[in-house]
Amino acid sequence: MNLKAITFDLWNTLIKNVDANDKRVVFLMEALGEFHVEQDRIYRAFDRMHQESWQKWETPPYVYFSVDERIQFIESMLGIQIGAAEQERIRTYFEECLLEDPPELHPHAQEVLEHLSGNHQIGLVSDSGYSPGRVMRKVLEMHGILDYFTITIFSDETGFNKPHRIMFETALASLKVPPSSCAHVGDLLRTDIAGARHMKMQPIFIDRYNTPEQEARKYQPHAIIRSLDELFELK
After folding, report:
1. What spatial distance separates the first Cα and last Cα of the chain, rounded to whole Å?
2. 143 touches 124 (CB < 8 A)
3. Most CB contacts within 10 A, which of 113, 211, 229, 230?
């Protein structure tokens, strides 16, 4: 492919998915104790907020749903107004609780990044979810892989999630490479592969879900791999 740069998705591409929402709900129930709201109502409000966040992630224009907006959504659902100091405490916990038990790297992630960074610029293009870029960079640093990346792009910093073009445009502009000389590796067809293909990058689909090949080919990935160690062959 004669690549000058390679960008990676983060969640379920380089690191394993984790679900810390049970922790967040328990913390929220404790934080809202002064309002004497039934726990079941708090749980339903959190669940409705989570559904809203998925809808925004899946629907154009793919606007990032910040943690502050999520808390405000819960306030509206419960008909309460949380004080500024307590709102800050909730926001911080929602964003940082995964640092208590950081997500693990997928096999071969560190070795592949080390190998590829010898001859390519390496970028990260990641949706943020609850944990923003400032937190996820700490996770990368904890795993000893942050320094392999020339640039790290997160949706809380651009304001939009993949497949919005600004995520990829920001990466390409920072790397100073033409799209055709940059591969993007990701596990989601709708966000990673479609977004990179739209930008005329070289999308590589890492299939962690045994996707039917016919379905994957609809998105025209340049290549389909099953494991990160297959990337040792990239040129």
Report:
1. 6
2. no
3. 113
pTM strictly above 0.85: yes
Q: What six digits make up the tokens of 200?
A: 């005329």
pLDDT tens column, 104-122:
999 999 999 999 999 999 9
- Percentages helix, strand, coil for the chain (3-state, rounded to 5) are 50, 15, 35
In terms of CATH, what superfamily is 5-17+103-233? HAD superfamily/HAD-like (3.40.50.1000)
Q: Tell me the domain boundaries of the chain.
A: 5-17+103-233, 21-100
| Per-residue pLDDT tens digits for 46-96 | 999 999 999 999 999 999 999 999 999 999 999 999 999 999 999 999 999
Q: What would the pLDDT profile of 134-178 be if each residue is shown by its tens digit?
A: 999 999 999 999 999 999 999 999 999 999 999 999 999 999 999
**DSSP class per residue in 52-108:** HHHHHHHSTT-B---HHHHHHHHHHHHT----HHHHHHHHHHHHHGGGGSPPPBPTT
- From 51, 47, 24, 14, select the one nearest 136 (Cα to Cα): 14
What is the pLDDT at residue 235?
79
DSSP state, 123? E
